[in-house]
Amino acid sequence: MAIELGTLWAVVFSACVAQHPYQTLNVPGLLGRVVELRRFQVQAMARADVDILRLGDDVAIQKGMLMSPSLWLAWLKPRLAALTAAVRTVKPDVLM
User: C or N terminus of the chain, fewer CB within 10 Å?
Assistant: First the structure.
């Protein structure tokens, strides 16, 4: 069984831009909260014996990245690594 969970960045982006365009929001804090929710989800799916789990964010287009590489490295990469590690603690052989 394969499951796609969606994105981290899109959730935070929509909260920042679409819902609160004139407010300064704590983006790292929002990302942290989304990751905690996703951690619960991915571990539950791993316990349900999922074989393939896809986590993905639209961070690039054909001509380049939508965000700077340094922003991706600082905000998204460590959080995606934490989710991968969370899944591997439950089911080490899941494909991601």
Answer: N
pLDDT of residue 68: 84
Which residue, 27, 23, 46, 24, is CA-closest to 35? 27
Angle at CA of residue 94, ends 47 and 27, nearest 5°:
80
- Whether the model clears a pTM of 0.85, i.e. scores above it, the answer is no
Residue-range domain boundaries for the chain: 2-90
Residue with tokens 């929001």: 25
